[in-house]
From TrEMBL:
Family: Belongs to the tetrahydrofolate dehydrogenase/cyclohydrolase family.
Complex formation: Homodimer.
Native organism taxonomy: Bacteria, Bacillati, Bacillota, Bacilli, Lactobacillales
Organism: Periweissella fabaria
Record EC number: 1.5.1.5, 3.5.4.9
Protein name: Bifunctional protein FolD
Keyword NADP assigned: yes
Pfam family, one: THF_DHG_CYH
């Protein structure tokens, strides 16, 4: 098998650090608090939200899940956000994506005050990321967690050819900005990209986030490439697979597994950002 990147291990190491930060904050009378709004009953979203809640509990972070029916109006979600914005016990607000069709996700993300925007989706925080601002701002947790993994497995990204496949708000776009801020040469590929095979063959780092099983084959990437698989696809028989097919036994290539790669890093990074926001709010 290709060498697997141990996302679970890196996530656990990060959680040990977070737990110690939380302990110190609690000793000062500050308990970090996160609120997650889940609209509807998407089974995958319910698993992710449960994982987030469990991680918060284990770390001593207060968490509140607000589960609303799929038919909830945008106004109702906005009213919930306004209440959480005004609640001093809440440091971090996350509205789980995807949301039902009647809700405009951009309007929701812009309604969260930037200071509690744990996903980093508010235009002010997106702008800070694109400007590579030096003062603190929250940034999207999946790509930030990937940067933490890369820091372990490919610490010097300067001048590296980085290929991001998929341009979502959640992953591809912020990933492009973070790799750019780390001085990689970034290509953002998407469904209209015409020379994908060549881009794949040339890349030093590939982040795949398209949501299609076996979209990328390890036999198509360089011998010393690092591949980050963001895909989570549930097959008909219930097994979970990423976007990458590992068809290179005995290779030296590095790949994140699914599960146990990017997923646990996303959760740990979300907790990291929550604690950072709590610290920002406390003026310590
Ligand atoms: N506002 C918002 N912020 C998000 O950060 C956000 C979101 N919406 N919508 C959906 C995506 C996806 N996401 C995951 C979180 C944990 C796992 C996770 O725990 N994965 C486990 C397996 C989980 C399973 O068994 O299904 C693993 O990969 O090992 C996966 C995916 C957060 N997201
Ligand atoms: Mg608090």
């Amino acid at each position: 098998m290709t060498k697997l990147i141990d996302g679970k291990q890196v996530a656990n190491d990060l959680k040990v650090q977070i737990a110690s930060s939380v302990k110190k904050l609690i000793a000062l009378g500050i308990t970090p608090g996160i609120a997650v709004i889940l609209v509807g009953d998407d089974p995958a979203s319910q698993i992710y939200v449960r994982n987030k809640q469990r991680a918060a509990e284990k770390l001593g972070i207060d968490s509140e899940v607000i589960h609303l029916p799929a038919t909830t109006s945008e106004e109702k979600v906005l009213a919930k956000i306004a209440a959480l914005n005004a609640n001093p016990a809440i440091d971090a607000i996350l509205v789980q994506s995807p949301m039902p069709a009647q809700i405009d996700e951009n309007r929701i993300q812009s309604a969260i005050v930037p200071e509690k925007d744990v996903d980093g989706f508010h235009p002010q925080n997106v702008g800070a990321l694109f400007n590579n601002a030096q003062d603190y701002y929250p940034m999207a947790n999946t790509p930030r967690g990937i940067m933490t993994l890369l820091n372990e497995y490919m610490p010097n990204l300067v001048g590296k050819k980085a290929l991001v496949i998929g341009r979502s708000i959640l992953v591809g776009r912020p990933m492009m900005a973070m790799l750019n801020n780390a001085d990689a040469t970034v290509t953002l590929a998407h469904r209209h990209t015409t020379n994908l095979e060549q881009l794949i063959a040339d890349a030093d780092v590939i982040v795949v986030a398209v949501g299609k099983p076996h979209f990328l084959k390890m036999s198509d990437v360089k011998a010393d490439a690092v591949v980050i698989d963001v895909g989570i696809n549930r097959l008909a028989d219930g097994t979970l697979v990423g976007d990458v097919l590992d068809d290179m036994p005995d290779s030296e290539q590095l790949l994140t597994p699914v599960p146990g790669g990017v997923g646990p890093m996303t959760i740990a990074t979300l907790m990291q950002t929550t604690v950072e926001l709590a610290r920002q709010h406390s003026t310590i």
